[in-house]
């Protein structure tokens, strides 16, 4: 199935006040390595669910159309396919933040709660305050900040160009924040799902040499402002609950914490 069609379907499932589930930005960010491995489920010729393999260990990140979120038949089909070697490598963990039927079936089938995550959201109805940094997009600086923010980063300019050439990036921007000395101190990529839908921050990072000065909050505010300019109804993000500093940064930038969620891990894994 055409991955562009899947990305558009995933975009269509984003709705204000809804869960922070698989987003076109997740597909777009993973596209830096080339088109991500994606599975899709259809009903009457329409895509109603999609799962993206996010790591070599078999984590599947799910997105489900709101209209079929309570469908037990679809949930059973998804779980069967995720366990069938003929359908691809069986999933060892499933990120199912939405879809009561699938979440209930996973729990009843013995899948255990995994790492807790904290979703956050900022409403973009009102104008966003000035962030206090100069904001620009420079590919070399975007890559340099990513390396300085994440010790195990594999980001390169070549991978940025691969990501930027992918369909989801048509509704995305990379932002680099510069301090008063014109140092590149923080960066973020923001992904729109279209007019009137929640956008996503993925990822956000602060240069290790410039931490503790409020730059994380500033670049997050800049991200919210950019998404509002792009027509997003809200800015969303999800971070491990153990990342207390990250959660605090988003809250300081006007984001509201939503109920904590966990992935599901296959029994025996």
Automatic annotation (TrEMBL):
Recorded hits in Gene3D superfamilies, A to Z, give: 3.40.630.30
Domain N-acetyltransferase: start-end pairs: 119-269
Kindly give the Pfam families that the UniProt entry links to this protein. Answer: Acetyltransf_1 (PF00583)
* Secretion signal, residue range per the UniProt entry: none
**Does the entry feature the keyword Transferase, yes or no?**
yes
Which SUPFAM superfamilies does this entry report, sorted A to Z? Acyl-CoA N-acyltransferases (Nat)
Keywords, A to Z, come to:
Acyltransferase, Transferase
Give a GO molecular function annotation for the protein: acyltransferase activity, transferring groups other than amino-acyl groups
**Protein name stated in the entry:** Acetyltransferase (GNAT) family protein
């Amino acid at each position: 199935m055409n991955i562009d069609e899947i990305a558009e379907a995933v975009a269509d499932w984003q709705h204000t006040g809804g869960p922070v589930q698989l987003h076109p930005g997740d597909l777009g960010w993973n596209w830096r390595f080339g088109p991500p491995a994606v599975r899709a489920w259809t009903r009457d010729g329409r895509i109603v669910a999609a799962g993206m393999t996010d790591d070599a260990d078999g984590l599947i990140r799910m997105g489900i159309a709101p209209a079929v979120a309570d469908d037990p038949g679809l949930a059973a089909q998804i779980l069967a396919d995720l366990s069938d070697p003929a359908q691809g490598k069986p999933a060892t963990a499933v990120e199912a933040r939405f879809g009561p039927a699938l979440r209930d079936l996973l729990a009843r089938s013995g899948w255990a709660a995994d790492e807790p995550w904290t979703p956050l959201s900022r409403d973009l109805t009102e104008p966003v305050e000035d962030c206090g940094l100069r904001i620009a997009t420079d590919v070399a600086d975007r890559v340099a900040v990513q390396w300085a923010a994440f010790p195990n980063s594999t980001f390169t300019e070549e991978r940025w160009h691969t990501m930027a050439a992918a369909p989801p990036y048509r509704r995305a921007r990379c932002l680099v924040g510069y301090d008063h000395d014109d140092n590149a101190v923080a960066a973020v990529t923001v992904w729109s799902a279209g007019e009137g839908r929640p956008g996503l921050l993925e990822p956000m990072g602060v240069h290790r040499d410039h931490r503790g000065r409020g730059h994380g909050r500033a670049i997050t505010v800049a991200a919210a402002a950019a998404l509002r300019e792009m027509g997003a109804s809200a800015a969303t993000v999800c971070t491990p609950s153990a990342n207390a500093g990250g959660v605090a940064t988003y809250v300081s930038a006007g984001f509201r914490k939503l109920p904590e969620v966990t992935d599901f891990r296959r029994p025996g894994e």
